[in-house]
Amino acid sequence: MRYLKRFPLVPTRVTKFLAIIYHPNPKVQLHTHLKPPKANQTLKSYLNSNCNTKALLFFRDLLRKSPSTIDSFSFLFVLKASTQKHYAIGGKQLHALVIKFGFNSIVYLQTSLINMYSARGSLLDAHHVFDEIPCKNIVCWTALISASVDNQKPKKALQLFRQMQMDNVEPDNVAITVALSACADIGALGMGEWIHTYVHHKKGLDIDLSLNNALINMYVKCGNIVNGRRIFDSMEKKDVTTWTSMIVGHALHGQAEEALKLFAEMRGKDKKIWKKKRNGDRGSSLIVPNDVTFIGVLMACSHAGMVEEGKQHFKSMSEDYGLKPRESHFGCMVDLFCRAGLLKEAYNFILEMPLQPNAVVWRTFLGACCLKGNIELAAEVRCRLLELDPGHAGDYVAMSNIYAAKGMWDKKIVVRGQIKQRKAPGCSSIEVGTGISEFVAADEDHPLRPEIYVVLKHLLINMKASGYLPELSSLTEY
DNA sequence: ATAGGGTTAG
After folding, report:
1. Number of domains making up chain A
2. Sequence-ordered list of residues with C-beta below 8 angstroms from that of A448, at least 6 positions apart, any chain
């Protein structure tokens, strides 16, 4: 224990870390259980029982007392432990050690390093490791693609996915699953469809549950709910994610009834379906909803104005399923009240929340105040927002719009003038061919995501109001 | 023995 105190777990500098290696305490004898195979087994068992800190401490002891027992396998376990723990500096030190031990050309370790950097949000470092890999196989490609998705670079992920194929590396089910989630993120329906076709034509591809779930998610996020549902209905084996993806899909499309029907079916409460299931495949309806499922359910209620139903599900979530509502669940409830125009209910709900309401919650409420024209509440909420997120230009705009709507021009001008930085212009992106373009456009083959229709509708209404658009007839199809 | 995977409020 004395060593733990003398040398902190995460040394602030590499030199300090190297000092640890070069100064093993001579008094400490090597324990017999630290022989090579045993040491790795210990690391592995710590990892399996989720004791990441213990694994790291143990590894540090190994470094100090018996560095010779460390082999490339040890690093795999330690890298995994440090990835899950998010130690700020430990990652680079481990990378340095991998190099120092001469293990830097082992592809397994390089892939682990990509993951480690990705988990720390250092996509550039991950890419750097990737570039150094001489023979890039499907697993390291997937690791980098996955890193791009995890770090909000879905466009880059898809570029890598294509580049990988140009390098004659065939995608497998894991790579395809990750690529599909990138498609879902940017609404790249064409690319998603291409992958779907590929999946059906490639021989020997293992179309497993995750891949099917990713396909459903891609279709519903890209606006093609029909195809999403088609896959859902055709799947014999479904897990909680399958159901949740479909429920969220219907909720996003404003199909609340369908979403809630699925939820009921999933719980096996729908007697008719229960019977049907009983005759056929028993057990397939025994799926327990998780916290994400409830996000979908609450979203559906919110979008359909079903306040009472939403309240019941929110209650049932913790009472019947023992799921603790998270920030987003409270956010859904606030949204539910706000969309229904129940300002008082929303306000009381926010004040009684066991969590600190965040800027998004107050912003939702501010939006409702605007719609209802409640200047007093809006002004109060804006004060809170100024504390939580002072740089958000949209809040100033919302507030100034309330004053404008009430004809309070002097106040409006004051609020408008408080904006320090120009608001970033809103933008949408839409896929053209298999690339992504930064403008709004649509045709039969490339329908827009549902939320873009909402933006388009507002755009068209504004254009009409400004006299740019002679007819509103084109709106009907939306 | 060893590396990569899906669902999450506005």
Report:
1. 2
2. A187, A223, A430, A440, A442, A456
